[in-house]
Amino acid sequence: MAIKKQYLKSKPVCKVTFTVPAEEAKKVAVVGDFNNWNPKGSTLRKLKNGTFKGTFELPKENTYEFRYLVDGSYVNDTEADRFQWNDYAGAENAVLEI
């Protein structure tokens, strides 16, 4: 898994690219604070090599909790900036600091 951040000089946003290797998966989405944990509109595109990838513009100077939704199961990104316990989920969420 990988997270790439590209800060834009022209706008107060950061382009964040999420990459998830999941050859066997049918569907992968990234859900978190930035999209109200809704997978609609945040589905990653499957590449020919079996990796899922997607880029999103997120407002700078924020911290976001997120997870991947891989065929209905939640998965954390091992490359996240840090992890934070979430009582609602009863699990740790990955944290992205922009």
UniProtKB/TrEMBL annotation:
The keyword Hydrolase applies. InterPro entries: AMPK1_CBM, CBM20, Ig-like_fold, Ig_E-set. Residues 8-98 form the CBM20 domain. Keywords: Hydrolase. PROSITE patterns: CBM20. It holds the Pfam family AMPK1_CBM. GO terms for molecular function: hydrolase activity; starch binding. This is Glycoside hydrolase. It comes from Flagellimonas aquimarina.
